């Protein structure tokens, strides 16, 4: 079908409008990355307080060096963090492949996770495509203000599982951000706190002369502190995953913006060519009409 000037003008307008949308999405992704980074920085004080509490409780007790050799045979659960939205490339494929290979063995394997909690609906679909349907699904927060609520909801689900299975070991896997807007999957232990982490706190020197005094029994205080320590890890994991998701989206929008700019340039060139051809054709028609109407000598 022959392309017309009017058709090209409509395509130019549509492409320019798509370009405006892409630029808005790119700006939102960039702003969101900074917000989630600031949220993690704001949590550092609370994280430091929890670690100091653990250090005070463990210091001199030897609890950090407790043998956990039988932990590998304990039932396991996994918190899997994907995405709720698209336009982030292979973000969900990366973390789904990692979780499937590292944590979710076939059902008949003894070391497979007994429970799976997926945070992010699109991520849940991808991990289900690998043959591991989540037992529970949670939505990701739409903004930084919802991070704490989602992290608490994850912790409540884990509390229920650990109440029915006291020896349950819980891991979390998510995408973390690298340089140049690349992401890499990673995983860490949530509960119980890894013994090497407890041991490093137990043997670390206390920054003052005396340890803080506490009235709560050690059997109650230590699990409560470990639970808050797990909450901090969940919060940071969700924030880091969301920042990584927006980084991939920012990269995709930048590529889309380059493609749109190239398309606009090509369309403008074609539009100018067609206009010039139309003007030339009209001039030729005028000249031909003038010559046909002129008296012949």
Task: Please describe what this structure looks like.
The protein is built from 6 helices and 5 strands. It has 297 residues and is of the alpha/beta class. It folds into 2 domains: 5-22 and 253-288, no CATH class; 26-204 and 214-247, ATP synthase, F1 complex, gamma subunit (Pyruvate Kinase, Chain: A, domain 1, 3-Layer(aba) Sandwich). Strands 3-2-1-4-5 form a 5-stranded mixed beta sheet, with helices on both faces. Helix 3 links the parallel strand 2 (115-119) and strand 3 (136-138). Helix 1 (5-58) runs antiparallel to helix 6 and helix 2 crosses helix 3 (121-129). It is elongated and about 120 Å long.
Strand order of the largest sheet: 3-2-1-4-5
CATH class of the largest domain: Alpha Beta
Taking the alpha carbons of the first and last residues, their distance comes to 44 Å
Q: What's the Cα radius of gyration?
A: 30 Å
The helix tally amounts to 6
Biggest β-sheet description: 5 strands, mixed
Structural class: alpha/beta
Which short descriptors sum up this protein?
297 residues; alpha/beta; Pyruvate Kinase, Chain: A, domain 1; 2 domains; five-stranded mixed beta sheet; 6 helices; elongated
SSE topology:
Layout (H helix, E strand, L loop, with lengths): L4 H54 L17 E6 L9 H12 L12 E5 L1 H9 L6 E3 L8 H18 L4 E9 L5 E9 L3 H9 L14 H76 L4
Parallel strand pairs: 1-2, 1-4, 2-3
Antiparallel strand pairs: 4-5
Question: Quick summary of this structure?
Answer:
The protein has 297 residues and is an alpha/beta fold.
